[in-house]
Amino acid sequence: MPVQTILPDIYSVGVTDWNVREFHGHTYTTKRGSTYNAYLIIDEKVTLVDTVLGSFSEELIGNIRQVLPPEKIDYIIANHVETDHSGSLPQIIKLAPQAKIIGTAKCKEGLQRHYYGNWEMQVVRTGDKLKLGKRTLEFIEAPMVHWPDSMFTYCPEEQLLLPNDAFGQHYATSERFDDEVDSCALMDEAQKYYANILWPLNDVILKKLQDVQKLNIPIKMIAPSHGVIWRKHPEKIIEAYLRWAKNETTPKVVVAYETMWGATAKMARAIADGLIDKGVEVKIFDIANSDRTEVIKEMLDAKGMIFGSSTHDNFMLPNIAAFMELIKGIKPKNRIMAVFGSFGWAGGAIKEIESLLIGAGAKDLVAGVGVKYAPDETELKCCHELGLTLADKVKSA
Ligand code: FEO
After folding, report:
1. Which CATH number characterizes residue 263's domain?
2. Which residue ranges have their beta carbon within 6 Å of ligand 1?
3. pTM of the predicted protein model
4. Does residue 281 sit in the same domain as residue 211?
5. Which of 82, 115, 210, 354 is the most exposed place for a label (fewest CB within 10 A)?
């Protein structure tokens, strides 16, 4: 990623990972790649805000060198310990051993446990300020947005918020700003990011957003640690985060299933037909052939979620089982759910999925449909009726 001036004397010095296709282990597919953003502020004190994944250290250092020798860095703000942002710290510290690392108490602990560097650190708390010269940096602790160490950095003179992961997107582009990219693709990636990383933390995020609103700080630009910078419409992503964190949904239903010989797929289509007949938006995914990250994104604002599986060895099939593990972690609140599936001689998948959902806090579980071997006309009618019932429920919720 070429170095770009984002504000006078403030540079984007991060890197683009065009070809990364999986993130957080194998839990998140990144079909549009990603970026690891870092920002260099030139003032009386030279400050680097975050670093990048360790494998991109040389590129980061080269980018910094285009602005000034990295040896001149005075401060490194470590907003977050996760290695996609701290991975190049050892290399930067080698070049600028005098640089003071600044982060939260949890960040200090986390960096030590990752790098064992015994680095000198200045621990900051919400409200602490750091004078750089003409500019100041103010710190806002943001624990569990999305790690215990997470922190936002704010520059009041520029009305610039540097919130690390928050408001980010796994979206590799040659452009750097929200007004330069396709806005649908941008919001699609922002929603995917929220759904797959932040959704389980809705309550914490809402509280943090409200706390930041109470601070009454003007925000002209949001420069996150992934994806593009919000300079034209920072309010757009803040409003979206408020909507998502408040668990707002639309009358939409996601049907996610796995089928062995097609019977469960037939049932899925009959349920979907019932929903469509009542004018409800439906998305159907055969999980064995679908991108799980996309499915979770679609679920973020869906009032209804229906899960199906054929029974295999008394349990659900393996792809839907892996998907349900994600649902168990997310614990979607206030959704209407149902389970369906076919079985041979002993059913087990429906019961297994239902208990997983109840364990994940599901309250509104509608009685589902189970079918021996393949559904006949009457059983397909039952599936269709389940769709009609669910449609009424999501529309009236
Ligand atoms: Fe982008 Fe939590 O790391």
Report:
1. 3.40.50.360
2. 80, 82, 84-85, 146-147, 165, 225-226
3. 0.96
4. no
5. 210
